[in-house]
Specification:
The chain is of the alpha+beta class. 70% of the residues lie in helices and 7% in strands. The strands form two sheets. The chain has a four-stranded antiparallel β-sheet. A hairpin with a 2-residue loop joins strand 3 and strand 4. Helix 4 (109-132) packs antiparallel against helix 5 (134-153). The chain is globular, with a radius of gyration of 24 Å.
Length: 488
């Protein structure tokens, strides 16, 4: 059902409010007729009688089409590269220990330094992106990812490798939150959740590639498999540097910075790429108007509970995920249990992540972000608990596969949910802080592993089950559901 939102003929101007999403513009001479579907946004005219339009309303006219698909391909490539850099820690540690004559626990310091770098990068670059723009930060961090990632391949000593992994971590930590914030700001509300989960799904692609690389390197008796793993992990970022030059700045950021004309040009570029009519050059774009006294800090009274809750979820999921996936690859490759061993099973474990993302992509749009995340948290905890019940290889295999499936579903829902909890002026900061807190989980994971696994593998996985239940409790603090909501 459509409602006439604006008729402009000469000096005659009629407007209606409470209109949004899909619009049809018909032009005939000096007559412009805009039909917009009745919806939830409030649109008003400016002092000249021109209809104001939010960025979300403008993007909704073109839907999610060719432009977003290109963006997804570019961001997805680098997202897979970042996953490869992160997951490489668990796969590379055994051969790093062999190359430099270290204990495996000492070799895992490459993970500690890498996650420390990610903490610094996420904390710093999320804030820089809110001030200087998403595009510039992404170009810098992806280039640094490629340079330091490739340099790691040729590290002559363990000390130099630690330095290079820290710098690579800074770059990866800066890329992840800004990637998501920028992708979110180019998506219409009704498509945002599913597309963000699909982007997160490229993490599984990176994991599979690393597992296959480790398997092939081990099968062919490579002298230092970790060098091959780091090489393969760095190549997509190298390609991504050049692809990122195509990506424009976020129109929401441009508008917030007072660069309305540039924002309109970017929006029209999106509409044109998607085969939709572009907006007239004098269309006044506007951000979704925040209520009076809107929060200017993540910890302001209106956002305090959701911030504490969502950051706790990020930390606890990260601690559990990295605890499992930093230790499990080495355990399966060297020890395992019965037929549950070797790099072949690790590849199967990585493949189990794909349907987890697929269900998360469906769930965030069908059931909502919060219920989907809660379901995956509880399923992850259940899978960890099942692991502790028996050392039967079949049960161990089933619990590990469900664990992989559910934990990656958690990440998919979490990445879709978090950027929508904050307004534009805090979105990069919110994602950067959440990512930084997650990296703290990565930093503490090896230490927790040392103590927990000293009491047995089953005991350690049981600890992760308890942490995931605690994450579900923390999510109760976040009472906002963002499905189909505009971001501003």
């Amino acid at each position: 059902m459509f409602q006439v939102a604006m008729v402009n003929m000469g000096s005659l101007s009629v407007r209606a409010e409470n209109v949004t999403t899909h619009s049809l513009t018909v032009e005939c001479g000096k007559i412009t007729l805009c039909l917009l579907q009745l919806g939830r946004y409030k649109t008003a005219s400016d002092e000249k009688g021109r209809m104001r339009m939010t960025i979300d309303e403008a993007l909704a006219q073109g839907g999610a089409g060719r432009f977003q698909k290109r963006l997804l391909g570019i961001f997805g490539l680098v997202w897979a590269a970042d996953a490869m850099q992160v997951i490489a820690v668990g796969f590379a540690a055994p051969s790093v220990a062999a190359t430099f004559g270290l204990e495996r626990a000492a070799a895992l310091q490459i993970g500690t330094l890498f996650f420390l770098g990610m903490f610094v990068g996420a904390f710093v670059f999320g804030r820089v992106a809110d001030r200087w723009g998403r595009r510039n930060v992404l170009l810098l961090t992806v280039a640094a990812d490629a340079v330091f990632g490739l340099a790691s391949v040729f590290a002559p000593s363990f000390e130099m490798l630690l330095v290079l992994r820290f710098l690579t971590g800074v770059a990866v930590g800066g890329t992840l939150p800004v990637d998501y914030a920028l992708m979110a700001e180019f998506l219409p509300p009704k498509n945002r959740g599913r597309w963000l989960v699909i982007l997160e799904g490229f993490w599984a692609v990176g994991t599979i590639v690393v597992a296959l690389t480790a398997w092939i390197a081990a099968s062919y008796g490579a002298a230092a498999p970790w060098r091959w793993i780091f090489l393969i992990a760095a190549l997509p970022a190298l390609i991504g540097v050049f692809l990122r030059l195509w990506v424009p700045e976020s129109p929401m950021f441009l508008l917030k910075s007072g660069r309305g004309d540039e924002a309109l040009r970017v929006v029209n570029r999106v509409l044109s790429a998607n085969g939709s009519p572009t907006l007239p050059p004098d269309t006044p774009l506007t951000l979704v108007t925040p209520p009076e006294g809107a929060p200017q800090s993540m910890f302001a009274p209106g956002l305090f509970k959701r911030t504490v809750g969502i950051l706790a979820v990020w930390f606890l999921v990260s601690l559990s995920y990295y605890g499992v996936f930093v230790w499990v690859p080495g355990w399966l490759a060297n020890e395992g249990m019965g037929w549950v061993r070797g790099y072949g099973f690790l590849v199967i474990l990585a493949l189990a992540q794909v349907p987890g993302y697929a269900l998360a992509a469906y769930g965030v749009e069908r059931w909502g972000r919060r219920p989907t995340l809660m379901g995956f948290l509880l399923l992850s905890a259940l899978a960890c608990f099942l692991f502790t019940l028996s050392m039967n290889p079949t049960l161990v295999a089933a619990s590990l596969l469900i664990m992989s499936f559910a934990l990656l579903g958690c990440w998919g829902a979490l990445y879709a949910y978090t950027p929508e909890l904050y307004p534009t002026n805090l979105r990069g900061t919110g994602m950067g802080t959440a990512s930084a807190v997650a990296r703290l989980g990565g930093i503490f994971a090896p230490t927790l592993l040392t103590f927990a696994f000293a009491k047995g593998f089953g005991f350690a996985i049981g600890v992760f089950a308890a942490l995931l239940v605690l994450a579900a409790v923390a999510l109760l603090l976040v009472r906002t559901e963002t499905k189909d909501r505009a971001i501003g």
